[in-house]
Please model this.
Amino acid sequence: MKAESKQSSDNRYQKGLKTITAVNPNAEDDIRQMLKDICPDMGKFIIEFAFGDIYSRPGLDLKMRELITISSLVTLGHPKTQLTRHVKNALNVGCTKEEIVETILQMAIYAGFPAALNGLSIAKEVFEE
Model:
């Protein structure tokens, strides 16, 4: 049973790695660097679960998934690091600046103006890089 579980985990990781690399070619190294001193397993979980199990599902393309992620992060109102990363990811998968801005603007209705303004400020920083 453990061998099957290991194989399943390896398959999920490889599937996730393929997907996350399409979104951000440096993601695996970035995640590994960010978490190596505190919780390396979190990086494995991000790649296996978020990108191997969820992002790689059929039904939504990577552009749509990134716009949904941006809207969720704006709604939360506080995850600047993750929002910055996902605005960059959205650009990497072909989203336009206008699509990103419109997604964030839409959140003013549901998350409030402060959350949308913070999101727009982060997007502007990314666009200026």
Summary: The radius of gyration is 16 Å.
